[in-house]
Amino acid sequence: MELPFSESYRIKMVETIRKSNLEERQKWIKDAKYNLFLLKSEQVFIDLLTDSGTGAMSDKQWSEMMLGDESYAGASSYYKMKEAIFNITGFDYFLPTHQGRAAENVLFSVLVKEGNLVPGNSHFDTTKGHIEFRKAFAIDCTIDEAFDTTCNHPFKGNVDLEKLEDVLKKSADKVPFIIMTLTNNSAGGQPVSMENLRMVRQIADRYGKIVLFDSARFAENAYFIKLREEKYKDVSIRAIALEIFSYADIITMSSKKDAIVNIGGFIGMRDDELFRQCCMFNIMFEGYITYGGLAGRDMNAIAQGLYEGTDFEYLNTRVKQVEYLGNRLMEFGIPIQQPIGGHAVFVDAKRFLPGLKKEEFQAQTLAIQLYLESGVRGVEIGALMADRDPITRENRYPKLEFLRLAIPRRVYTNNHMDVVAVALKNVFDRRNELTRGMRIIREAPIMRHFTIELDLV
Ligand SMILES: *Cc1c(COP(=O)(O)O)cnc(C)c1O
Fold first, then answer.
1. Cβ atoms of residues 93 and 269 within 8 Å
2. Which CATH superfamily does the domain covering 22-51+312-456 fall into?
């Protein structure tokens, strides 16, 4: 008999989590204005709000925390992080930042000007926020297949090369860079193929444009390339990652994802002049250029995490757990984005709640119902997150309304996944009774979903 699949690690420390009852959850979610971001984490049983900064660090990462040296300038931990970034990505200039969006803020302060167009596959919410905050426009050129959740395309994160080239043909002078997000988070944690990255590089070269990779989940992307792109089946994750990064001029990375730390990020660059310009903003916004808002111990943990996060056995454990949850949901007939993504299962809320109008925020309604059912917290990736159009101020309704169930790394067991699956099945069984959606009471002008206040219609 073939041995069954199991985790590539064992547990060394645990944290108690507590269940609650329906009555408590009804009160808590009302007090939180029906916004799951406003709940206290102790009011949550299984927390799938995000996979960002929620992973379990390893014994080696915790040891590195003790070894990190806390010098304002030139700490050994800075050099350790620099070496790890060079080894894993090939980039030799880097600036540490306190997280991924801070890297965007520093870099875009140099590169993005009013009226610019920034094309790419689907932009992450903070990335789009930082572009629109500068009165520029994020243009989503993701392939059409990504917007049909039943279509089983192996690389739904890909950019449509024709859509991309169209933007460049019409307005190349307004494009400061092309951005590729690995994996494509908003489309469902979907990978981009190496072939697609290579073609993007070619197009960029033809128009003399910079290519930026927003690479929070580069290792999960490399894992999918190994499994799904024939040519790479015998190539190591590290070698695949190095080839991926060879197609970029600049990278930003939130280390809270694939580097499995609780805080941190960075910008990787090749150009000396750009590096100098970014240094100024890093000092202004983040901290000195050799710590950028991080403690030395954090930089050591990132360095160690970059190696662990690109280990095949670890990635296999990680992605297989996400797949396990997705498969359980499919067994119950629950509609999800297919194929199952790298860091999360994306439930198709439009197909789950077809009776509810989009103006009543289907995915948010579903997220609230799952919480009420079980204390499981997911997150809306839909119309609330899409914000209003910066010019018309009308609500933007994206093609897809998702409830995202993001799985923290090395944290939960498959028993927890079973609880999530059955809880969502129970909601699915009573979906026809869910006829009341949500309405907005108060909202911020940009990235409103984090703080929005809602009520039942
Ligand atoms: C998380 C994330 C960011 C922003 O990083 P933070 O560390 O949360 O600030 C940017 N892009 C992508 C694709 C991300 O997943």
1. yes
2. Aspartate Aminotransferase, domain 1 (3.90.1150.10)
